[in-house]
Design a protein that fits this description.
two-stranded antiparallel ribbon, 8 helices, 2 domains, 7-stranded mixed sheet, binds zinc ion, Rossmann fold
């Protein structure tokens, strides 16, 4: 099962995967019926979550068969619920490269004016390049942009654009993957172009850099105040197990003052 899922993820382009997979996953979910974990986004309970990931990095107990959350999505959801006014205040939200698990629940929130945007995803309503956004300055109160910047040729430009379209006091959640936790300085070599070379250098065929511990400095360089939030450490152990959360993922919360 783990091997089958990781093969599909590797060879089927993500934009098709996002459209085709929900039905297949719900069928798989039938075999995971039970009470062991619960997804805080769709509230469904399972024996455990589905495995997810590529090759050797595939992991057990990760993907919600019902709404497709992964560990990090469940963490972000709980953070938004418990630590922000995301679900109560009237907010203009820009969701870049929107994760399907969030689109339905966020669209239903009466308090949100919710805009989804992406270069090519069929799930997004606005087609745009994050390095040159078609929005006025100060257009949004919240930007959500997770696992996007590692694909963007000029991430400084993308960060500057997010800063520009956020209004003062606006904030963003800007997660990126860290394949090498010991890497100090972000590694990018623009002569590395082929998917094979990129996989070798950055850990994935379509990444253009590997982020290091200087990631928050990079965010701050365009004007943001950055908080490295370890919200997951505040949660009781039983909740971390119940929701299958990442044990130590830092949330990068960027604020425009
Ligand atoms: Zn779910």
């Amino acid at each position: 099962m783990k091997k089958l899922i990781s093969t599909v993820i590797r060879y089927v382009p993500r934009k098709y995967l996002q459209v085709l997979s929900p039905v297949a996953l719900r069928v798989l979910g039938f075999f995971y019926a039970g009470k062991g974990v619960q997804c805080p986004v769709c509230n469904k309970e399972y024996k455990k979550f589905l495995p997810y990931g590529r090759g050797s990095s595939a992991r057990e107990n990760a993907l919600c068969p019902s709404c497709q959350t992964l560990e990090r999505h469940r963490l972000i959801w709980l953070y938004l619920k418990e630590k922000t006014d995301f679900f109560t205040k009237n907010l203009r939200v820009l969701h870049i490269a929107p994760e399907s698990c969030f689109i339905t629940p966020f669209s239903k929130q009466k308090n949100l004016t919710y805009t989804t945007a992406d270069l090519e995803s069929p799930l997004a309503t606005v087609k745009m390049d994050i390095q040159k956004m078609p929005f006025e300055d100060n257009s949004f109160d919240v930007v959500l942009c997770n696992h996007v910047l590692e694909h963007i040729p000029d991430d400084y430009k993308a960060l500057s654009e997010m800063y520009r379209v956020l209004s003062p006091n606006g904030w963003a959640i800007l997660q990126v993957p860290f394949f090498d936790l010991n890497l100090q300085k972000t590694f990018q070599d623009d002569t590395i172009i082929s998917p094979q070379e990129r996989f070798k250098a950055y850990g994935q065929e379509d990444h253009v850099r590997m982020y290091g511990q200087d990631y928050p400095v990079r965010i701050a360089s365009v004007g943001f105040e950055v908080e490295e939030n370890l919200f997951v450490k505040e949660l009781p152990k039983e909740n971390i197990a119940k929701y299958a959360l990442p044990a130590s993922e830092i949330l990068y919360v960027a604020r425009k003052n």
